[in-house]
Amino acid sequence: MTFHVFDVDYTLIKKSSSLYFLLEVLGEKLVRFEQVRGLLVDWLRYRLGRPNMDFIEEAIARLAGLDQGALEAAAKQCFETRIKKNIYVDACSLVRAAQDRGEPVVFASSTLKTILDPVEAFFGVQGSVSSELAFADGKTTGRLVRRSLFGGGKKAAVDALLERAGVPWQDVAFYSDSYTDLPLLEAAGRPVAVNPDRFLRRIASRRGWETLRFTRTLGAGR
Predict the structure, then answer these.
(1) Containing H/E element for 130?
(2) Domains in the chain, ordered, with CATH?
(3) pTM
(4) Rounded Cα gap, residues 109 and 41, in angstroms
(5) What does the alpha-carbon distance between residue 185 and residue 163 come to, in Å, rounded to a whole number?
(6) Residue 103 and residue 95: Cα distance in Å, rounded?
(7) Which of 28, 43, 97, 115 registers the highest number of CB atoms within 10 A of its CB?
């Protein structure tokens, strides 16, 4: 039986779930642009293949004192108005088909758990791994519960998940668009490059990995 692990941003959905959420909280004035403008530089570094591996921790440090309930409400609203319509039809079909066969499906994402929770609920998925905000007295502390799931942090989190489930990497199908997920793709018995970035596209071609192209989203044509 195959254990399916899906990256989320640009794999399951068209763009970054964090970007969709950022637009939501900026629009609701829960966050000021001055608090997150450094993310523009981090995004550029990522696109150039020189990512700041601590960018999530650095961004969260500037977001202490935000109300937990307001963030969770914004995440639900963001999913309904921004994320759901941008889920890839073919990705949705892959998830549903695996579930129909009785095969486990989880998500592994560097995005925040607050953002991912509505996505999990939509797909009926449980047990995913993601970066998680730390809260105290209903407010963000400016820290994460543990290391972010960007780069090596994601590999470590999925290692722990598979160990708890008693699943070897050889039974895993891992789907991702990004070169930063190369350690997981290399470990998986079935590595799948989905809409790969230019770095991953070259690697996947050289190694003969399965490559999928998704274009149509659930909201297309509406």
Answers:
(1) strand 129-131
(2) 3-212 (3.40.50.1000)
(3) 0.92
(4) 21
(5) 17
(6) 9
(7) 115
